[in-house]
């Protein structure tokens, strides 16, 4: 799995590192990230973050925007990589963001609800082997559910087409 903000040295796997989020949540977060990465460079810079916050209805001052980036900017490049963007949602779900911070507003106003599954506690986070097995099976279940849904939709479409052709044949005779 590629990522918009992966480094050249190692491949960043959101599903591997951010196991507290479902595949759907990760997809939604990546979609949101890409939507506001206007430069398509794999980063959200200060001006892109400004636009994002304005569109979400929580405009920030220049200093506020800088502080938002600073709070999760691990590599100190003054812009958000996809990994750093995901950290916002991890911190929000863990209750680590101040209520009045711009990051809290971003996490709250984006349509990604991390509270539905929430973040597992630190104890679970460090129980790597059993959790990894559970996570793998959870992802497998999600994939199977998505595949079943696609099959169901394809079958419904096939039935609708057959019904239409049958109805159509009564009019062409």
TrEMBL record:
Transmembrane segments: none annotated. Residues 24-59, 60-95 form the EF-hand domain. Keywords: Calcium, Coiled coil, Metal-binding, Repeat. It comes from the Eukaryota. SUPFAM superfamilies: EF-hand. One of its GO terms (molecular function) is calcium ion binding. The keyword Transport does not apply. The keyword Coiled coil applies. This is EFHD2 protein. It comes from Leptocoma aspasia. The gene is Efhd2.
């Amino acid at each position: 799995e590629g990522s918009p903000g992966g480094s050249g040295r190692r491949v960043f796997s959101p599903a591997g590192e951010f196991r507290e989020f479902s595949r759907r949540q990760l997809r939604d977060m990546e979609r949101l990230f890409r939507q506001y990465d206007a430069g398509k460079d794999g980063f959200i810079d200060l001006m892109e973050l400004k636009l994002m916050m304005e569109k979400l209805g929580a405009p920030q001052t220049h200093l506020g925007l800088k502080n938002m980036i600073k709070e999760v900017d691990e590599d100190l490049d003054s812009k958000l990589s996809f990994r750093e963007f995901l950290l916002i949602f991890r911190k929000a779900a863990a209750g680590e963001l101040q209520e009045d911070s711009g990051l809290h507003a971003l996490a709250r106003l984006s349509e990604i609800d991390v509270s539905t599954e929430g973040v597992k506690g630190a104890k679970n986070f460090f129980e790597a082997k059993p959790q990894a097995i559970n996570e793998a099976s959870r992802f497998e279940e999600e994939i199977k559910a998505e595949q079943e849904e696609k099959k169901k939709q394809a079958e419904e479409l096939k039935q609708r087409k057959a019904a239409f052709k049958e109805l159509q044949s009564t009019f062409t005779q």
